[in-house]
Specification:
By secondary structure, this protein is an alpha/beta fold. 42% of the residues lie in helices and 12% in strands. The protein has an 8-stranded parallel sheet with strand order 6-5-4-3-2-1-8-7.
Length: 272
């Protein structure tokens, strides 16, 4: 496994090896297709490849452990062995976490914030970063009727509690990344309030990951199909960087890397 400087800015390329993910389901299931997509994202500037074997789109059902393993582990081994890539694995299952780390993964990205039984213990024994994401409910039901008193305050409170649980389990704070979970149990208004107030997550004193790429917060506002949300995704990525995000999880690496370069140049100009 390779070390990662979580301060960023880092572009994390999404590699879904699933048949049913919302944006690219079925496109990269085969080993050759996954290899080609990973090679392209790395060439375009992805610092991390995030491999997912279970769709977490709204309405998605859970996948058996064995199926997720069969999808993910060979791809992790290929990415590490052939490309020496920094690999993250998007999973909530402790069994998959352990196998992925054994195969050379350098990070775990958990939409359930290590709430499954055994997940805290699995990560306590591994000296790698872990991303804790907020999700109200589960994928099957999360978009039914999400409610918050104050979406930002409520999510920060949740993430604080998960950070405390991690530290109590032996996971050092320096290894923790937080993700407010755009689109996971949030309305359109919730998502844009999160974006507007992203700087408030700085109080958690952990790197922040944002995943808005091609999501319904773009499609529902602009009336665009998934394939036509690339430009808007890059714009949101730049806005997130301006609000203190460290890691951008995206489908379209080239366009996001360009957005990052523009924001970094702007930051340099401010300093001079």
């Amino acid at each position: 496994m390779k070390p990662i400087d979580l301060r960023g800015p880092l572009v994390m390329g999404i590699l879904n090896v699933t048949p049913d993910s919302f944006s690219d389901g079925g496109r990269f299931v085969g080993r050759d297709a996954a290899r080609a997509q990973a090679e392209r994202m790395l060439a375009e500037g992805a610092a991390i490849i995030d491999v997912g074997g279970e769709s977490t789109r709204p309405g998605a059902d859970t996948v058996p452990i064995e199926v997720e393993m069969e999808r993910v582990i060979p791809v992790v081994e290929m990415l590490v062995g052939e490309f020496d890539a920094v690999v993250s694995v998007d999973t909530s299952k402790p069994e998959v976490m352990r196998s992925a780390l054994g195969a050379g993964a350098s990070m775990i990205n958990d939409v359930q914030a290590l709430r499954q039984p055994g997940a805290l213990e699995a990560m306590a024994g591994a000296d790698v970063p872990v991303c804790l994401m907020h999700m109200q409910g589960l994928p099957r039901t999360m978009q039914t009727d999400p409610q918050y008193d104050d979406v930002v305050v409520d999510i920060i409170r949740f993430l604080k509690s998960r950070i405390e649980a991690c530290v109590a389990a032996g996971i050092s704070r320096e290894r923790i990344v937080v993700d407010p979970g755009f689109g996971f149990g949030k309305t359109l208004a919730h998502n844009y309030e999160l974006l507007a107030r992203l700087e408030e997550f700085g109080e958690l004193e952990c790197p922040v990951l944002a995943g808005m790429s091609r999501k319904s917060m773009i499609g529902n506002l602009l009336d665009l199909p998934v394939a036509e949300r690339v430009t808007a995704s890059a714009i949101l990525a730049a806005l997130a960087l301006e609000r203190g995000v460290n890691i951008l999880r995206v489908h379209d690496v080239k366009e996001t890397v360009q957005a990052v370069r523009l924001v970094e140049e702007l930051r340099k100009t401010r300093k001079t």
